[in-house]
């Protein structure tokens, strides 16, 4: 049973409905995984075209259904996904036991969304951020005690369907019973390996991972290696067999890199060796300016769409 026990606000039957806010690379994949586990999902994104207010989330769902090689999500699971937009459907989060925020990595936008959520969510339901680098302490700043009690970080990895790791970060105010219920759901319903990380910059995986990716780029540039040559060294031999390090960046989204760097620079102590990654990388800046942000854009290190 997914029962969270009497001391959390999650229904006795466990997590019966999930809301994912942000239908991008991560949010759409997380929503698909939850639906594949047989749990209904409300998937919300912004309104880009007032004539088609749900178009962003709907397009994400359509892409998942068409994803190759195998359908990313079964047709049956897709019926469990309700798409919507944050302007007219946010009040529906009151029906959800767990709200997962997976919008862009910007503290100001996350704060603005949490403020709106606070007014409509059911107290006692879980709310988590998929942030890669923003400390939990900063995310709950300005929110009520009740919000902070129900809040945690659940950091999924890309692509959510294949990456088994999930980092769960609780804050000093987080309700342990609720954190337990979410971790248990991630483990049993989603098949994740749950790693409890502390609220430190970049948590565990990104602190190490971002550093490693940056070093791969610097080494490739300094040594004049092609992407293929660099990946022959840092890809398969270092445990990234399918994509290589550069292919991983195409998958993750190259536009995420400056956000990761900005949050790490803002939070790491001055003498921390991982600050090296905060150095501006002109190649990345130029690629982003040219729209080469990876698979979701017009290409990246490897792929030209
Ligand atoms: P993305 O840019 O692919 O998608 C973000 C989505 O959020 C977009 O569809 C955008 O329209 C939507 N959005 C923006 N503001 C919104 C708002 N106020 N309300 C509703 N929707 C809004 O981003 P992503 O790569 O999926 O990253 C999402 C989060 O997950 C970030 O916090 C990121 O750090 C984290 N993350 C990313 C990866 C990765 O590999 N890309 C891995 C782990 C964690």
Automatic annotation (TrEMBL):
Domain 3-hydroxyacyl-CoA dehydrogenase NAD binding stretches: 17-200
Top-level taxon of the source organism: Bacteria
Signal peptide: none
Limits of the 3-hydroxyacyl-CoA dehydrogenase C-terminal domain: 202-303
Protein name (database record): 3-hydroxyacyl-CoA dehydrogenase/enoyl-CoA hydratase family protein
Protein species of origin: Novosphingobium pituita
Portion of the full-length sequence here: 5 to 309 of 786
């Amino acid at each position: 049973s997914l029962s969270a026990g009497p001391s959390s606000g999650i229904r006795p039957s466990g997590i019966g409905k999930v809301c994912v806010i942000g239908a991008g690379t991560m949010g759409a994949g997380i929503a698909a995984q939850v639906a594949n586990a047989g749990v209904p999902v409300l998937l919300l994104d912004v309104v880009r075209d007032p004539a088609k207010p749900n178009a962003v989330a709907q397009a994400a769902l359509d892409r998942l259904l068409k994803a190759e090689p195998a359908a990313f999500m079964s047709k049956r699971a897709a019926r469990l996904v309700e798409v919507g937009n944050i302007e007219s459907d946010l009040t529906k989060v009151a029906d959800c036991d767990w709200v997962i925020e997976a919008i862009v990595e910007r503290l100001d936008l996350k704060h603005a969304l949490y403020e709106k959520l606070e007014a409509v969510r059911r107290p006692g339901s879980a709310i988590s951020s998929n942030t890669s680098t923003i400390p939990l302490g900063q995310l709950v700043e300005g929110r009520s005690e009740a919000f902070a009690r129900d809040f945690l970080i659940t950091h999924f990895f890309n692509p959510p369907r294949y990456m088994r790791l999930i980092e769960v970060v609780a804050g000093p105010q987080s309700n342990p019973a609720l954190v337990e219920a979410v971790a248990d759901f991630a483990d049993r319903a989603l098949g994740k390996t749950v790693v409890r990380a502390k609220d430190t910059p970049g948590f565990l995986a990104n602190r190490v991972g971002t550093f490693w990716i940056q070093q791969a780029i610097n080494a490739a540039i300094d040594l004049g290696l092609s992407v293929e040559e660099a990946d022959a060294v840092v890809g398969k031999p270092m445990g990234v067999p399918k994509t290589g390090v550069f292919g991983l960046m195409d998958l993750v989204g190259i536009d995420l890199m400056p956000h990761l760097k900005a949050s790490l620079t803002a939070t790491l102590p001055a003498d921390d060796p991982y600050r090296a990654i905060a150095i501006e990388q002109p190649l990345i800046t130029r690629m982003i300016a040219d729209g080469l942000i990876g698979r979701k854009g017009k290409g990246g290190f490897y792929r030209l769409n």
